[in-house]
Write a structure and sequence with these properties.
370 residues; alpha/beta; Rossmann fold; 6-stranded parallel β-sheet; 40% helix; elongated
Length: 370
């Protein structure tokens, strides 16, 4: 097969992880004539994720996660066997492994998918800054770029906004009749949020805002999709607030995109998003959205045009924005339509795949001229 020979590496390929979903989108929408693509994981692929890559015509490899040197040896064998020209790492551990493994003539690229994830440990930060000083860095938003740029870096820096598949034809959202299966009245007003239950996702702020509204709006419900270390504490907190019996914890749902159809408004109050895949999916589903002003979310949502933006961590402001949308059906419809149009234009999967491919082709040309 012709084209640039690329291997993309991540530590894991879980079914619900944001990074694996981005890599799968690239696999599906790349031009196979330009990119001969393979995927590798340090941990076992989720079976459904492995099958999705196979359907996209992408070979997969598992290299193991038993220490940098053992993983690097396994990866080096793959890179040499398949004459890989560019290895793209999507996590810090996989990037450091790729740097140990890459043979002469194989470029290592670090694709940074978050804001806080690679700067939490000072020693690791110093290490990757030194290792990556001449490598290309791909950022998923301007916010991610601002968080990770450093003065001594001499390599290329590229911002490529993530691409999100337009799923409406393949998996159309449920209609409101599906609410009955969740114990939600069809005529209820439903807010929804999809996120891992961890501190920076700010579920507590959302519960506080919901409690402010629930006593005055007995038909108000909240749907929460996801799991995480704070799931049980949030369950306990919900039982202690007004209207807590109208908060629905659904866990991990493979039909999370379809569940957008039962929501009147999608809310995303987190304070550290490097992009916000779930927000864009809600926009594609024509849901009006409320997001915080933290991280990349103000890049994704234009306040008053494709959604509403509230102050991060401010439950009062979040409740005010939620109330504004509850009380204004024409505004909800307008924001939903404009959100979908903007998402298709700015975050289209083909545009995204083409831009990433161009970055990788430049890497190969750089090797040829070095």
């Amino acid at each position: 097969m012709s084209g640039t020979k690329v291997l993309m590496l991540n530590r894991s390929f879980s079914l619900t992880g944001g990074v694996p979903r981005v890599l799968l989108t690239y696999a599906r929408y790349r031009d196979p004539e330009r990119v001969n693509l393979q995927m590798a994981s340090m941990k076992p692929f989720a079976p459904a994720m492995a099958e999705a890559f196979r359907q996209a015509g992408v070979p997969i490899h598992q290299i193991g996660d038993l220490g940098y040197w053992r993983s690097a040896r396994a990866l080096r064998t793959i890179l040499k066997t398949h004459a890989i020209q560019v290895v793209v790492a999507a996590s810090l551990r996989s990037y450091l492994t790729a740097k140990l493994a890459a043979p002469a003539g194989c470029r290592a690229v670090y694709w940074i998918h978050g804001i806080a994830t690679v700067t939490e440990d000072r020693l690791k930060t110093a290490l990757w800054h030194w290792v990556a000083r001449r490598d290309t860095l791909i950022f998923i938003s301007e916010s991610a770029a601002c968080a990770h740029r450093y003065a001594s870096h001499r390599g290329r820096e590229v911002v490529v906004l993530n691409g999100v598949e337009d799923f409406l034809l393949q998996a159309p959202p449920y209609d409101k009749g599906y609410r009955a299966k969740l114990g939600i009245p069809e005529n209820a007003f439903v807010f929804g949020y999809t996120a891992e239950f961890i501190e920076w996702k700010q579920h507590r702020t959302l519960l506080t805002a919901f409690a402010k509204l629930a006593s005055e709006h007995p038909g108000l419900h909240l749907v929460l999709i996801g799991v995480g270390s704070l799931l049980e504490p949030m369950r306990a907190a919900s039982s202690a607030i007004t209207g807590g019996e109208r908060i629905h914890f659904l866990g991990v749902r493979q039909d999370a995109r379809q569940l957008l159809g039962i929501m009147d408004v999608y809310v995303h109050p987190s304070n550290g998003e490097g992009f916000g895949l779930a927000v864009v999916e809600a926009m594609l589903a024509r849901r009006p959205v409320v997001v915080s002003d933290a991280g990349a979310l103000p890049e994704i949502v234009i306040d008053g045009k494709t959604g509403l933006v509230c102050r991060g961590g401010d439950a009062n402001d979040l409740a005010a924005k939620m109330t504004q949308l509850m009380s204004d059906p024409p505004l909800r419809e307008k924001l939903g339509e404009q959100a979908r149009a903007a998402a298709l234009e700015r975050f289209g999967a083909k545009r995204f795949a083409g831009q990433i491919t161009t970055v990788l082709e430049v890497e190969v040309r750089a090797v040829a001229h070095s």
